[in-house]
Structures are given as C-alpha cells and as structure tokens.
Amino acid sequence: MGLHDGHRQRMRQQFLSHGPQSMADHELLELALFYAIPRRDTNETAHRLLEQFGSLDRVLTAPEQELEQVEGVGQNAAVLLRLIGAMGDRARQPGREEKIVASVDQAGAYFLRLLDGQRTEQLYQLCVDGKGKVLSCRVLSQGQADMTVLSLRQAVENALLSGASGVFLAHNHPSGVALPSQADVQATVQVRDALKRLDIRLIDHIIVADGDYVSMASSGLLR
After folding, report:
1. Which NCBIfam families match (predicted)?
2. What is the pTM of this model?
3. Other C-beta atoms within 10 Å of 171: how many?
C-alpha cells in the first residue's frame, strides 16, 4: 500500500466513522475527487477549487467548462462534482416535500427555493394536475442567457408524458433583476399557445432573482 493509499483509507474511515461534520470542506472535496482521480494527490486540487470558486456550494454548482479550467481537474472530476451538486439539488427540490402548487404564492415559494442563488441561468417546467398536485419538475435548459433556446417540443412532450392539466415555467436571472425581457415574454407566449392546442393550461411563468420573484400571470403578460 502506497502513501496515498494509506491517506485515502484514513479519510474514508474518518467519513464513515464520524460523518461529514468531522471534515473540512477541502477534505470532503478531496475525498470525492478520489473516485475520479485514482492515482494523484487530490488535496491541492481541492484547495484550488475552493480558492477559484469561493465555497463548496459554488464548486458543486459551477459549469463543467469552468471546473475543467482548474489545474488537476479533468472531465471525469468535473462530471463527478456536477453530478454531486445536481443530486443534492434534486434531493432538495420542494416538490418532494410540498406536493401542491396551485397559486402564484405557492409557485413563487417553490421556485425561489429551487433557483435563488444559482450562478447560471436555469429554466424549469413544473407539471401539475387539475388540483395543483405536482406531477413532475424538469430542467428544460441550463446556462443559456435567453428564453429563445426553449424547445417547444420538449415542453409539450413533458406535459403530455406527465398527464398534466397545467404547467408552470420558471427561470432565474443571475444578474439580480427579476423583470422579464421581451424575449422571455415572446417565448412564454409560444409555449402557452402550443399547450393550449392540447387543452393544457400554462398557469404562470415565474422569474427569480436576488431573493425575489416576478409572476408573468400577475403582471398581465400572459393574457
């Protein structure tokens, strides 16, 4: 057993015996990177990641391309870190706890928890039944700067596969301004019209930014 092997075994044992609370952020990153970087010391790489992005949360939500710019991080490590972050986001999705989203306030609270603080733009589609019961919540796009990239076919297929009566859209503005752009409005109207032909209602489009949200329906933009 080499020097690195012994160190890795000790760190694994610390995690298993005492839990993540017994380890610093750089140690948790170092341990995770063991599984993508099998034959190199990952301690320095963990420190570089935290120095580059500022916090463990920002490391786990950074785009793959930015992660790979850090010395020592290859594609496998970047994918692993994004996977860990994505699984954490999925596990924390409010739809897993709160099953009813039937009003602007409920939708705003749902998407604030899901999107507030994200560093890249993400677009979600939430499908509900006639009583507001959550049927599915899926990402339609990530990292794009405008709504024009939205796939109408994907939005319609998601609604049909979920058996939805209604749909909420939501995306965040990392710039910190929650006001919809003209492109946001135009793309949303296209989705509304496509769903309407299938007797599925686009209930609202929520825009999240800086701890606040704007409802397009309440703002009169979906009439």
Report:
1. radc
2. 0.59
3. 28
- For residue 139, the model assigns a pLDDT of 84
156-202 pLDDT, tens digit per residue, is 999 998 999 999 999 999 888 888 888 889 989 999 999 999 999 99
Cα distances from 152 to residues 50, 184, 187, 190, 191, in angstroms, run 38, 13, 9, 8, 6
Burial classification of residue 86, based on how many CB atoms lie within 10 Å of its CB (0-12 exposed, 13-18 middle, 19 or more buried)? middle
Please name the residue that has the structure tokens 């733009």. Answer: 121
Kind and range of the H or E run holding 140: strand 134-142
Report CA 49 to chain centroid distance, whole Å: 20
Q: If we measure between CA atoms, which residue out of 52, 9, 57 comes closest to residue 31? A: 9
DSSP per-residue codes, 157-178: HHHHHHT-SEEEEEEE-TTS--
Whether residue 146 is predicted with pLDDT greater than 80 in this model: the reply is no
More reliable by pLDDT, 202 or 137: 202
Tokens at 48, concatenated:
């570089």
